[in-house]
Amino acid sequence: MAIRSTKQTWGSVSRALHWLSAALIIFGLTHGYWMANLLLPRPLRLPHYVWHSTIFLYCGLLLALRIVWRLSEDTPEQPKASSRFEISAAHVGHLALYVLMIALLVTGYMNWSAFPARFDPARAAAMEIHLFANFKVPALHKTLDRDVFKFWETAHMYLAWVMAALVVGHILAALRHHFQKGNDVLRRMVSGTSDTG
Ligand code: HEM
Ligand code: HEM
Q: According to the model, what pLDDT value does residue 196 have?
């Protein structure tokens, strides 16, 4: 089992990083929607917001690792039978997935930083985020501004919807490659086997 990716297939590190981030993003989208919209009574939401923020700040480190690893190796070429449009669509789609992962992290962090409960002395301590046991995450916002908070909250929410739509398109494209076109695009991401050796 090769560790590094080649022009023919994905290596084990890239595959592990892909499936781990896929599971985390799908979990983040569903749990995020649940905690922000369905969980009642509302005060129960705060611990979930902090938990969600903490998990996804760790995911930011995972994403950084993924991007560095991705830039350091070859990547599989698109199947020979693909049209130029399909090849460009795959490139743009994958780039958009990376951009959205970064944008969700940034807007999520700003959302937490501007969150009203952080400025309420009774709830501020419960909103703190600690990474690696004792690194206290600093906040950018020093005073409460509800319009600023609303902006980041709305941006984070809309980006989550765009991400959800993109993920559905991405999954449909992968299934189309496998079942309709019968090529190795899905297989080389699942098991690392490829038609071209
Ligand atoms: C939330 C979930 C997901 C995210 C954020 C995501 C993200 C990505 C990204 C960014 C790439 C490009 C890799 C690169 O060029 O570095 C990729 C490739 C790929 N993904 Fe996903 N993915 C997700 C879920 C899935 C699922 C559920 C499937 C299968 C049904 C899948 C199948 C694939 C395949 C087959 C490739 C390789 C495409 C190729 O070789 O050109 N992904 N994914
Ligand atoms: C890829 C990563 C992330 C995903 C997929 C994600 C997903 C979501 C979703 C779907 C919601 C519910 C939006 C709504 O319907 O209102 C949400 C809310 C929230 N997220 Fe994230 N998030 C991510 C990263 C982060 C990060 C890094 C932080 C903070 C450091 C964060 C903090 C929050 C907070 C505080 C809320 C509650 C928003 C509110 O109702 O005011 N998120 N997230």
A: 79
> Quick one: tokens of 21?
């981030």
Dist CA 153 CA 107 (whole Å): 8
Output the furthest CA–CA distance in the chain (Å, rounded): 62
CA 88 to chain centre: 22
Residue 130: strand pairing partners: 136
The token pair that represents 30 in the structure block: 């569903």
Q: Produce one character per residue of 49-75: b if its CB has 16 or more CB atoms within 10 Å, e if not.
A: bbebbbebbebbeebeebeeebeeeee
Q: Is the dihedral of CA 92, 158, 63, 22 positive or negative?
A: negative
Task: Name which residue sits closest to atom 34 of ligand 2, judged by CA.
Answer: 49
Q: Phi, psi (5° rounding) for residue 178?
A: -75, -50
Which residues of the chain carry a pLDDT beneath 50? none
Phi-psi region of 94 (alpha: psi -120 to 50; beta: other; left: phi over 0): alpha
Q: Please give the pLDDT value at position 165.
A: 98
**Pocket around ligand 1: residues whose beta carbon is below 6 Å from it?**
18, 21-22, 25-26, 70, 75-76, 90, 94, 97-98, 167, 170-171, 174-175, 185-186, 188-189
Among all chains, which residue has been given the structure tokens 């991007």?
67
**Could you tell me if 146 and 118 are in contact, meaning their C-beta atoms sit under 8 angstroms apart?**
no
Structure confidence at residue 55 (pLDDT): 97
